Amino acid sequence: MSFSQEIINWYHPNKRDLPWRHTTDPYIIWLSEIILQQTRVEQGLPYFYRFVEQYPNIATFAAAEEGEILRLWQGLGYYSRARNMHKAAKMVMDNHDGIFPTTYDSLIKLNGIGGYTAAAIASFSANEAKPVLDGNVFRVLSRYFGIEEAINTPKGKKLFYELALEMLDKEQPAIYNQSIMEFGALQCKPQNPDCQICPLRTSCYAKQTNKVNSLPVKIKGRISKDRYFYYFVIMDEKSGSIAIRKRGPKDIWENMYEFPLIEQAAPLSISELKNTKEFNELFGRGAELHIISTPKKHILSHQNIYATFLEVSKISKDSNKKGEWDYVLLKDLDTLAKPKLIFAFLRDYNLQ
DNA sequence: AAGGCGGGGGC
DNA sequence: GCCCCAGCCTT
Question: Boundaries of each HhH-GPD domain copy (predicted)?
Fold first, then answer.
C-alpha cells in the first residue's frame, strides 16, 4: 500500500474529535488555523470556543475593535496573529463582499495567512489540492523518507514542499492533509514516538536505520537575550485609578498594555534605579520607591525578562510631561489586553 | 537568509 | 535547560 493510503487508513480510527473538523466554513477553519499556529491543540481549544462564540462570522469579527480582539487573544502569545486577523477580516469585507475566500491564491493575499494556512483552509473548506507543510509534515516526511536536509532553510523547505506535493492524495486532499498532520501529532511525535505500534514501521527509513531521534534535522536557534524591566505601579487612590501605557511597534507585545517602566540591559539596585536619568525624568527627585515583588523571570522563546514591580509615591507634580502613561480606572483594567506577565501580577496581588 | 515574535508542556 | 508546537512577517 502507498504511503498516502497508509496514512489515511491510520487516520480514520485514530483521529481526535476536534470542533473545526465538523465544518467546511472557511471562516471557522480560518479561526482554528490561526489559533493553532505554533500552538498546541489543548492550549488553543478554549480560545477557539471563545472566538466562535464572540464572533460567529466574518462580519462580526471585522466590526470589532482591535483592542477587543487582542483582549480575547490575551495569554495565547504571538499577538501579531490577532492584529493580522483583524486586518484580514476587514479585507474580506472590503474586497470579497464579506464572503470568506476558499482558493489558495486568494487566501495567501490575506494578512497572517502564509503557505501553510492557505493550503489548510483551501483544502479543508474546498478540497483544493494543495499540500500542507507544518511541523508535523516535516517530521513525518523526513523520518519516513530519510530526508536529512534541514527543514528550516529555503533549500530544505523547497525540497520538502516538492515531496509533500508528490505524496498529496489529489482525490481527497482534505482528508490526506488532516491525516498526515494528525499522524505527526499523535503517532510520529517529536519525542519518544511508539514506533512498535506504527503501521509504517517496516518501511520507515528512520525506524529501520535507528535515526528516529535525529530526524528531522533543524538548524539550531539563537541564544536568548536578557532584559530587565522595572515596572512602576502608580495608584491614584482618590479616583481608584492606576497608571498604564500602551506598548509601541517593533518590539514584543505591540499595542498591549503594561505599567510605566524603565528597561535596562543589566540589573540595577533600587538606589541605582532612583539615580538614573530616566527615573528623574519620569517622576522627579523626590519620588519614593517601594518594592512590591522581587524580580520575576518571564521566559519568551527568544528572551528572558526579569521584571521587578515597584510602587511609586510622591511623584512630582510636573511628572509625566511626555505623556508616558494614562490613568485607567481599576475596574476598567480588565478590558485592556495585557501580556501574561502583567495580568498574572494583577491577579497575584489582588489588584484585579 | 536570518531574525523577531508568546506562552505552555514534555523530558 | 532545551526542544517543540496546524507559522508568518520584516529586514
Answer: 35-186
